[in-house]
Amino acid sequence: MRLTKRGEYALRTLIRLGIAERQQEGVISVSTLAEQEHLPFKFLEAILFELRTAGYVESLRGKYGGTRLAKPMKAIKMGEVVRLIDGKLAPIGCASETEYEKCSCPDETHCGLRMLMIDVRNAIANILDRYTLENVVEVTLRKQQQTATKKHPRKKAAGREKHADPADGFLAVLLDSAS
After folding, report:
1. Are 77 and 84 in contact (CB under 8 A)?
2. DSSP characters for 36-104?
3. Can you give the pLDDT at residue 161?
């Protein structure tokens, strides 16, 4: 499974709206959302239309109008949003529950690749379906607070940036705060 830009932007937008709700900021204009999240305005409008049609967000018109969440954050499962925007979670069509596609393998029933990709799909689905927008917003705000209170942020390796450190993952932050 590869999250498309559309899926990434939809999730980032929902997280930003969740943070705004938690911090009692009220509605946020589309132009402010686009600016804060560095998203193309027209693309964001199309994504918000899709999220609004599905009942995740609502728009308020007028001078002080904008967008806000239409559902409680705890009612928005991350997996539902990914499936809405990007469709299947499986890396290959023959491993998909929702958008199955016959593959070219001569023995699909005993195909090791298919079995492995079903497990990959299940692992992705288990994580995305376990957590709600409320969980992600909570962890995001907690990480921001931790970073703001650290006196000596982690240094990057000399000459190169460190990318995708496991210690920066959602579950690492979630579990770190539980201890």
Report:
1. no
2. HHT--HHHHHHHHHHHHHTTSEEEE-STT-EEEESS-GGG-BHHHHHHHHH----SSGGG-SSS----S
3. 61
> Which residue's entry shows tokens 């029933």?
109
* Three-class DSSP category at 66: strand
C-beta separation of 93 from 103 below 8 A: yes
- Residue 35 — φ and ψ, nearest 5°? -70, -50
Residues 69/26, Cβ–Cβ less than 8 Å:
no
Q: Which two tokens stand for residue 66?
A: 């904008």
User: pTM surpassing 0.85?
Assistant: no
Q: What is the pLDDT of residue 52?
A: 97
Give the integer Cα–Cα distance in Å for 118 and 9. Answer: 26
